[in-house]
Amino acid sequence: QRVLLIDRRPHVGGNAYDCHDAAGVLIHPYGPHIFHTNSARVLEYLSRFTAWRPYEHRVRAQVRTAQGRPAQLPVPINRTTVNVFFGLNLSEPEVGGFLASQAQPVQPVRTSADVVLGAVGPALYRTFFQGYTQKQWGLDPSELDKSVTARVPTRITDDDRYFLDEHQVMPAEGYTRMFGRMLDHSNITVRLLCDYDDVDPATYRSLIYTGPVDAYFGYRYGRLPYRSLRFEHATICQAQVQDVAVINYPDPAVPHTRITEFKHLTGQGHPQTSLCTEYPAAEGDPYYPIPRPENAALYRKYQALADATPDVTFVGRLATYKYYNMDQVVAQALATYDRLMAP
Ligand code: UDP
Asked: Has residue 343 got a pLDDT over 90?
């Protein structure tokens, strides 16, 4: 096939685009993108375009313990989190029993509050999840599907890795280089600073659309809610600032949700370091679909329109209104390719 790839932005790669900032530090302008997958097919496919560096992601939350002392504790909640937060010294089985004694399980588990209250009880829920979620989504966890906080499970072990996937690696030279190799083919033309509807439909047979699905259909049934972010980037004249790549700030009195120090992710050696602070926002570029029943119902109406538009294929987070990780988007794209190419 001959392919014209268009993007309204001045670069390829969407929000996974990375680049060097003015100081020469490799950053993710649209916030931290950390690759992890259990899919051998996804890893093999991407490995055609990049080498990898091993990277296991770790996150700490800046909180006050039950005794009111400031501390940076592991997220997901694990044995260390529980012991330091409550000033205890419990073994793994004891942590399991202690959390069970705190937990407030409900049946059925429906919301993001149900998930966390059912696993760790109200004290850890309020400190680690309620404020963060309220800031991130503009909603209380009780107003969000269970799938949102279920992304961050609870552990009784000391394992403080954010992800447990079999493959935890970052593209050795960054995402943009990987995309560059993917697009380096004589049948592929890239046109930037161009909107999909700037291209005359008479010049192509089929369209793969990755923008917001409601925008494609002219917001016919009203707007699908998306959550946005504002990123504040800064470079600091010291080699390292944080112990780990990401510090979360669940405190509702702090306006941002998290700060990322990119050199942890990229492994870059550099005398300076660059940080990105995330401020959630209602307005701005769409970054997250908002998982809750009324939004899913509205999406289903757009999905019916999409299904009735066979010469346009909708893929990705925005076009299928799914809170997908990068590997899930790649898997969706590969499955879509299989379907399109089937005889
Ligand atoms: N979350 C939270 N506190 C945390 C980390 C996560 O409340 O310290 C909740 C919050 O609602 C967040 C969701 O869990 O949006 C999913 O977290 P994840 O880190 O997967 O979000 P992403 O990296 O996709 O923004």
From this structure: no
For the Cβ of 77 lying below 6 angstroms from any atom of ligand 1, the answer is no
* Band of pLDDT at residue 95, cut at 50, 70 and 90: very high
pLDDT digits (tens, 9 = 90+) for 97-130: 999 999 999 999 999 999 999 999 999 999 999 9
Ligand 1 center–CA 137 separation, angstroms: 10
For residue 130, give the amino acid letter: Q
Mean pLDDT of 246-266: 98
Cα separation of 98 and 95, whole Å?
Answer: 5
Ligand 1 atom with the shortest distance to the CA of 116:
7
Q: Closest ligand 1 atom to the C-alpha of 325?
A: 24
The token pair that represents 13 in the structure block: 């790669």
Question: Is there an atom of ligand 1 within 6 Å of 259 CB?
Answer: no
